[in-house]
Amino acid sequence: MDHVAIMKKSWKLIPKILNGRKKIESRWGINRCAPWGKVKAGDKIYFKNSGEPVTTVAVVSKIKEFENLNPKKVKEIFEKYGGNDGISINNLKSIVKWAKKKRYCTLIYLKNPKEIKPFNINKEGFGGSCAWISVLDIKAIKL
User: Fold this and answer.
1) Strand pairing partners for 34?
2) Is the terminal CB of the chain with fewer CB neighbours within 10 Å at N or C?
3) CA gyration radius, the chain
């Protein structure tokens, strides 16, 4: 399966994926929504900043999923895995506050990241503000 992760440009995470500083893509949610339960080892994740073309691809090496989160569990996840997701955990208190309503977390371990020839995608049918798209083959949405 192929996936598109739409990133917040201001966080500047795609360069960190490419240079190896970001080894884990984390997704947090109030409900079980993509990528929860959809991503498997060996899948490809294509990355794009919001409003820009896809520029990067990486392979999934493993997945960890956490549910029934509370502030204590969120703190434990960030203490154990933080930093490898490319986000500094210097201010753990504010991170836990940000995630206080989150109940689900998916950690996606990345390997073999590489820059690719940029291309756009058709997000029609996935919702204009979706941040994760899963398809059998990227060719189905590649423009």
Assistant:
1) none
2) C
3) 15
